Structure to design on (450 residues):
């Protein structure tokens, strides 16, 4: 079932992004008076074909759904054949350079507008997100050095308000790329407000091969762990632990995370531990003796035979419809700039190329976010839409950004680049795109196999 969800979510993601991108080109081309011959979703053999519209445009859904295109009337296109004299003024190549720029630019801008629309909708509707409470950071991490403690609530990053852990994660991530020092406003569980400095200059290139948050020491605080499924005949069942019990203390030591509880149990095989648990609003003591078992390395460890988990405290984050417009534009802009910064870091060697993802990773995350819920899937869709818009604006021949470079040259010198320049540019562009595709697929397969 999960595989089916992943496939469907992936196809929906690709379909929406491609249709929006190509509709941007199509809509502006029509407004500029250019005749559109074909609107294709995908490449290769057509699976669906319909001719409609005043220009008898061919609408196609093709077999390979990894892209799409809008084919316009163009004298340089050998497939067009002889063009009727009445249609010549509607050829793409006969439009002014500024109209051609508008048509090419419309695709990436449509993707960015889609992201703005999605963020606006989520801001207005409201999304349940974990509160900005942090778990106890591992010793030696920047968060631990800064003085963050379990249960601290971060209220601001460099003076910018933090309303959820998602906000905290995003604001810190932007600064982590630059290895900045971050000012945090923190409210402790005792109600005392503190001003801390999070030094991110110690992060290494390796820390950015995936999510750098664990290296920083920031994780969401889930509160005292709860008991999930209890194994029949296990130590937890024998002691009387029940699903839903919340473990507050072990031997009068507060328990703030599942990891802490697991480590305490593993270190006490055969030793009776006094659990203070909360059950249905009341507290009680339960004595549990972890069974002696051998781990994968042959060491003797304790095990109680119960699943353990945490439930972060959630808060609904939402804004007014007018305020949401500015926030949606700002989030889209910040994400686009962040993407460009990460690409720049990869080019200069300051960040790993392992951060580059391809269709397998996109499919994986599409399935995971769809399984979580509509809000998570829409957030993912907005993020990928921004990435697609930014990618297409890169000055690489074969992409929209490459065409924009040619048009900029045409404006400066008063005539288009020479045919041989365009031809070699296309060859170079194909080489760059093939290299990036192979690298992205390699990273995808590496993540999948690991």
């Amino acid at each position: 079932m999960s595989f089916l969800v992943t496939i469907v979510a992936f196809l929906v993601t690709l379909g929406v992004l491609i249709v929006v991108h190509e509709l941007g080109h199509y809509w502006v081309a029509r407004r500029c008076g250019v005749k559109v011959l074909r609107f294709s979703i995908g490449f290769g053999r057509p699976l669906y074909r319909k001719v409609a519209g005043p220009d008898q445009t061919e609408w196609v859904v093709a077999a390979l759904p990894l892209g799409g295109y809008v084919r316009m009337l163009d004298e340089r296109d050998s497939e067009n054949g002889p063009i009727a004299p009445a249609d010549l003024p509607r050829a793409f190549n006969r439009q002014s350079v500024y109209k051609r720029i508008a048509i090419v630019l419309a695709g990436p801008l449509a993707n960015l507008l889609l992201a703005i629309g999605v963020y606006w909708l989520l801001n207005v509707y409201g999304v349940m997100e974990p509160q900005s409470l942090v778990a106890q950071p591992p010793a030696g991490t920047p968060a631990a050095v800064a003085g963050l403690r379990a249960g601290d609530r971060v209220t601001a990053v460099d003076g910018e308000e933090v309303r959820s852990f998602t906000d905290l994660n995003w604001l810190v991530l932007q600064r982590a790329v630059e290895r900045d020092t971050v000012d945090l406003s923190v409210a402790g569980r005792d109600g005392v407000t503190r001003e801390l400095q999070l030094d991110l200059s110690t992060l290494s290139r390796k820390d950015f091969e995936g999510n750098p948050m664990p290296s920083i020491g920031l994780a969401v605080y889930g509160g005292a762990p709860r008991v999930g499924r209890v194994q029949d005949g296990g130590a937890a069942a024998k002691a009387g632990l029940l699903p839903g019990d919340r473990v507050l203390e072990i031997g009068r030591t507060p328990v703030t995370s599942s990891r802490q509880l697991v480590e305490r149990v593993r270190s006490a095989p055969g030793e009776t531990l006094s659990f203070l648990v909360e059950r249905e609003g009341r507290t009680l003591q339960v004595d549990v003796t972890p069974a002696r078992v051998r781990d994968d390395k042959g060491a003797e460890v304790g095990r109680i035979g119960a699943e353990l988990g945490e439930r972060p405290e959630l808060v609904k984050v939402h804004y007014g419809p007018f305020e949401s417009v500015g926030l949606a534009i700002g989030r889209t802009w910040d994400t686009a700039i962040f993407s460009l910064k990460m690409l720049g870091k990869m080019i200069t060697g300051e960040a790993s190329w392992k951060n580059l993802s391809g269709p397998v990773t996109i499919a994986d995350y599409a399935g995971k976010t769809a399984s979580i819920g509509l809000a998570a899937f829409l957030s993912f869709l907005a993020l990928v839409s921004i990435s697609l818009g930014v990618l297409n604006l890169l000055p690489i021949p074969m992409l929209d950004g490459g065409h924009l470079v040619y048009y900029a040259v045409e404006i400066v010198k008063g005539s288009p680049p020479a045919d041989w320049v365009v031809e070699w540019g296309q060859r170079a562009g194909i080489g760059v795109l093939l290299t990036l595709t192979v690298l992205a697929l390699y990273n995808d397969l590496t993540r999948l196999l690991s």
The two ends are 22 Å apart (CA to CA). The longest helix spans residues 419-449.
